[in-house]
C-alpha cells in the first residue's frame, strides 16, 4: 500500500498521523465527559438544543440551494457530486459537533437561580466557567479527519473540496451567530438594562439567557477554529499546488496537525504549570510551531527544480510563450507540444541567475510577466522562503496578541472608566479610541508582514498569496494555543489572511476561460487590473453587502431588544427568570438572513457587474470580516472591563452616575459586538462560497449564454435581498407609542 500512493510515502504517513490525532480529538472528549463531567442543566440543554435547531434548518436550506448550483459547474459528474457533497458535509459537521457540545456546555455553565443570584452586574453568569473548562476538540478533530479523508481519496485535487466543506461549515456558523445575537440581546436586556439600571436589588432576570449566550459564544469560537482548520489546508493545496507541488499538500497536513496539538497542549500542561498560564501557552504554542517550521525547512528542498511537481499533476510546461523561448514552433505555425519540466529547468535556472541581463527588454503584458515570474522562481530557495513565511506568521501573531492584550487591559481601560463619570458619551468615545488604536496597531503589523512576504517573492502575486497562507497557518497555531476567546483580535487577523488566499482559485478559474468575442464581456469576466471598472465596482459592492447584512441584523435586534426588555421586567416583577422559548423562533427567522444573503450577493457581483468583480468582492469581504472581528473583540472587552472597575468600588462604585453611564456603554458595546460577530461570520461565508461558485460563474459567463440570462440571475439576487428586508421588517415588536 505504501509504495502505491502516488503522492509519496511521506504524505501517506502524514495522513495517518493526522487521522490518528483527529480521531483522538474526537474520542477523548467523549471519554472525559462520561468519566467526570458535572451533571448538565437539563433546562439549559433543552434551550441550547432548540437554538441549535433554529440555526440548523436555515443553514441546510441555504446549503441545498448552493449544492444544486454546484451540480452544474464544469467537470465530470463525480467532481460535481464531490463538491456538492462537501458543502453539505461541512454543514452537517457543524450541526453534529455543536450538538455533541451541548451536554458539556450545559455542564460547564452552571445554573443560576434568580433567587440566589449574585448582584446584577457583578459578572456574566457562566462565562468564566465556560472559559476555564477543558477545550472541546471534537470540531477540530472532525475538520482534521475530513482533511485526511479528502487528501487520501482525491490527493492533489483535494483543495477545492476542502474549501467547499469549509464554506458549508462557515454557512452554519453564520446562522448560529445570528441565533446567538438574539439570545445575547435578551441577556443584555435582562441583565444590564433591567437588572442593573432599573432594579438595584438581587435579581437576575436574564440568568438563562446569559448562560445560553455564554455557551453559544464558546461553541461559535470552536466552530470558527474548525473553519480555519478546513479552509487553510484547502487554500494552501489549491494555491501551492502549481507552485511547490506535493509539498503544498505536506504543508497543509502538517499545519493542521500543529493546530490540533496546540489546541490541547496548554491544557495538558496544566498539571505541570498550574500557576503560570503564560508559560503553558508559550510552551503549548512553541512546541508545535518549532516542529512545523523545522520539519518543513528540512522537508522542502533548497532548489526549486527539486520540488515534486509531477506527482501533483504539474510535471509539464504548456505556456506557449515560455515554450517559444526554448523550442522552435511547429511547421504549421501551431505552438509546440508541452515539455517535461526536467527538460527545461536547467536552462531556466541559468536564466534566473542572469535575469538582470534581459529584464529591461520585457514589457508589462500579463503573458510576459507570467513567464518572468516562472523564470525567477527557479532562482528561489523554497525551503528558506516557506520557513521565513512561517516565522513571519508566528511573530506577527504573537505581536498582535501581546499588543492587543496590553492595550485592552491597561491604562486605557482605566481612562474609559474614569471618563464615564462625565456621562455615557465620554465612555463611548474612549472605547472607540481604544478600538481604533488596536485596529491601527494590528493593521500595521499585518502590513509589515505582507510587505516582507511580497519582497521575498520579488512581487510574484501568486507566490506571495501562497506564502500569506503559510503565514496564516503559523498564526493559526498561535491562535489555537491561546484559545479563540482569549485572543479574538488575533482571530480576525488569521481569518483575513485565510480568506485573502481565496483570490488564487478565483483568478485561476476566471483567467482560464476562453476569450469572448465581445470586448466588454471579455473584460467583465477576465480583467484583473485594479483600475478596471469591474474590479472597482466589485469592491464597492463588497462594502455594500457587509453594510446591508449589518443593517438587517441591527434592525432585527432593535425589535428583539424592546420585547426582551418587557419580558425581563415582567420576570423581575414576578421573581422568575426571563423566558427563552421565543428566542429560538426569532433566531430561526434571523438565521436565514446571512445564509441567503451570501449567494444573493455573489449573484449580484458576478452576473450584475461581471465575473471579474468576484476578486475585489472577496478581497473587501476578507478585510471586512477581519476588521469586524477585531472591532467586536476590543469594543466589548474594554467596555466590560471598565464596568468591572465600578464593581470593584472605584470611581464612585455602584449606583453612581458614572456606573450608570458605563453600564449603558457596556450594553451598547456588547450589542455592537454581537452584530459585528454575526456580520463577520456572514461575510466570511460569502467570501468562501464565492470561491466555491467561481466555476459556475465562469461557465455561465463564457458559454455563450445571453446577457439577459445573467441579468435575470442578478435580479433574482436583488429580490432575495429585498425579501430578507421584508422578513426582518416582519419581526414582531411591541407597541411602545403613547396612548
Automatic annotation (TrEMBL):
Positions of transmembrane segments: 12-32, 52-72, 84-102, 145-173, 223-240, 246-265, 277-300, 384-404, 425-457, 463-482, 489-510, 530-554, 590-610, 616-634, 674-696, 708-728
UniProt-annotated stretches for the region Disordered: 113-133
Coiled coil: none
Keywords linked to the UniProt accession: Membrane, Transmembrane, Transmembrane helix
Superkingdom of origin organism: Bacteria
Protein name according to UniProt: Uncharacterized protein
Organism: Helcobacillus massiliensis
Amino acid at each position: 500500500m505504501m509504495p502505491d500512493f502516488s503522492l509519496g510515502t511521506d504524505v501517506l504517513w502524514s495522513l495517518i498521523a493526522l487521522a490518528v490525532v483527529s480521531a483522538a480529538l474526537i474520542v477523548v472528549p467523549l471519554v472525559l465527559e462520561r468519566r467526570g463531567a458535572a451533571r448538565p442543566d437539563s433546562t439549559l440543554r433543552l434551550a441550547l438544543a432548540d437554538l441549535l435547531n433554529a440555526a440548523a434548518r436555515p443553514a441546510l436550506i441555504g446549503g441545498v440551494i448552493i449544492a444544486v448550483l454546484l451540480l452544474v459547474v464544469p467537470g465530470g459528474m463525480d467532481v460535481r457530486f464531490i463538491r456538492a457533497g462537501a458543502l453539505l458535509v461541512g454543514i452537517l459537521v457543524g450541526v453534529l459537533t455543536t450538538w455533541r457540545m451541548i451536554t458539556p456546555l450545559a455542564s460547564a455553565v452552571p445554573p443560576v437561580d434568580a433567587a440566589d443570584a449574585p448582584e446584577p452586574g457583578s459578572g456574566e453568569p457562566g462565562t468564566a466557567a465556560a472559559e476555564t473548562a477543558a477545550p472541546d476538540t471534537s470540531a477540530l478533530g472532525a475538520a482534521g479527519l475530513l482533511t485526511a479523508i479528502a487528501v487520501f481519496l482525491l490527493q492533489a485535487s483535494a483543495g477545492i473540496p476542502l474549501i467547499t466543506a469549509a464554506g458549508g461549515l462557515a454557512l452554519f456558523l453564520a446562522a448560529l451567530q445570528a441565533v446567538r445575537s438574539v439570545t445575547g440581546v435578551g441577556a443584555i436586556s435582562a441583565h444590564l438594562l433591567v437588572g442593573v439600571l432599573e432594579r438595584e436589588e438581587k435579581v437576575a432576570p436574564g440568568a438563562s439567557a446569559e448562560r445560553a449566550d455564554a455557551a453559544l459564544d464558546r461553541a461559535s469560537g470552536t466552530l470558527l477554529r474548525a473553519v480555519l482548520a478546513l479552509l487553510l489546508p484547502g487554500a494552501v493545496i489549491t494555491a501551492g499546488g502549481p507552485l511547490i507541488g506535493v509539498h503544498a499538500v505536506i504543508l497543509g497536513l502538517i499545519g493542521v496537525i500543529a493546530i490540533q496539538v496546540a489546541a490541547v497542549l496548554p491544557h495538558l500542561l496544566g498539571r505541570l504549570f498550574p500557576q503560570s498560564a503564560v508559560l503553558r501557552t508559550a510552551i503549548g504554542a512553541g512546541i508545535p510551531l518549532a516542529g512545523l517550521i523545522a520539519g518543513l525547512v528540512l522537508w522542502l528542498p533548497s532548489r526549486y527544480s527539486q520540488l515534486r511537481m509531477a506527482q501533483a499533476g504539474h510535471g509539464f510546461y504548456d505556456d506557449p510563450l515560455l515554450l517559444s523561448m526554448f523550442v522552435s514552433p511547429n511547421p504549421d505555425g501551431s505552438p509546440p507540444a508541452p515539455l517535461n519540466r526536467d527538460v527545461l529547468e536547467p536552462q531556466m535556472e541559468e536564466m534566473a541567475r542572469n535575469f538582470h541581463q534581459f529584464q529591461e527588454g520585457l514589457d508589462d503584458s500579463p503573458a510576459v510577466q507570467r513567464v518572468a515570474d516562472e523564470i525567477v522562481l527557479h532562482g528561489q530557495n523554497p525551503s528558506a522562503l516557506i520557513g521565513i513565511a512561517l516565522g513571519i506568521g508566528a511573530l506577527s501573531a504573537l505581536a498582535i496578541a501581546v499588543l492587543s492584550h496590553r492595550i485592552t487591559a491597561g491604562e486605557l481601560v482605566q481612562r474609559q472608566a474614569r471618563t464615564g463619570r462625565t456621562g455615557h458619551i465620554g465612555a463611548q468615545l474612549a472605547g472607540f479610541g481604544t478600538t481604533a488604536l488596536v485596529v491601527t496597531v494590528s493593521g500595521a503589523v499585518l502590513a509589515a508582514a505582507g510587505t516582507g512576504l511580497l519582497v521575498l517573492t520579488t512581487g510574484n502575486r501568486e507566490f506571495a498569496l501562497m506564502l500569506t497562507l503559510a503565514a496564516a497557518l503559523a498564526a493559526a497555531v498561535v491562535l489555537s494555543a491561546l484559545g479563540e476567546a482569549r485572543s479574538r483580535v488575533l482571530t480576525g487577523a488569521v481569518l483575513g489572511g485565510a480568506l485573502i488566499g481565496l483570490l488564487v482559485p478565483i483568478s485561476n478559474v476566471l483567467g482560464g476561460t476562453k476569450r469572448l468575442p465581445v470586448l466588454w464581456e471579455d473584460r467583465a469576466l477576465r480583467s484583473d487590473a485594479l483600475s478596471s471598472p469591474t474590479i472597482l465596482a466589485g469592491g464597492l459592492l463588497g462594502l455594500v453587502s457587509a453594510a446591508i447584512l449589518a443593517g438587517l441584523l441591527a434592525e432585527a435586534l432593535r425589535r428583539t431588544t424592546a420585547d426582551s426588555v418587557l419580558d425581563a421586567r415582567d420576570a423581575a416583577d414576578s421573581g422568575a427568570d426571563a423566558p427563552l422559548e421565543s428566542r429560538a423562533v426569532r433566531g430561526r427567522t434571523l438565521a436565514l438572513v446571512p445564509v441567503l444573503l451570501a449567494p444573493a450577493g455573489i449573484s449580484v457581483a458576478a452576473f450584475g457587474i461581471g465575473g471579474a468583480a468576484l476578486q475585489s468582492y472577496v478581497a473587501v469581504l476578507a478585510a471586512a470580516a477581519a476588521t469586524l472581528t477585531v472591532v467586536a473583540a476590543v469594543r466589548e472587552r474594554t467596555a466590560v472591563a471598565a464596568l468591572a472597575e465600578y464593581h470593584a468600588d472605584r470611581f464612585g462604585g455602584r449606583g453612581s452616575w458614572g456606573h450608570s453611564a458605563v453600564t449603558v456603554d457596556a450594553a451598547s458595546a456588547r450589542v455592537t459586538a454581537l452584530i459585528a460577530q454575526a456580520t463577520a461570520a456572514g461575510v466570511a461565508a460569502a467570501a468562501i462560497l464565492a470561491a466555491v461558485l467561481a466555476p459556475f460563474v465562469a461557465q455561465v459567463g463564457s458559454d455563450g449564454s445571453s446577457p439577459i440570462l445573467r441579468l435575470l440571475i442578478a435580479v433574482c439576487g436583488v429580490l432575495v435581498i429585498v425579501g430578507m428586508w421584508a422578513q426582518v421588517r416582519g419581526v414582531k415588536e411591541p407597541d411602545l407609542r403613547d396612548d
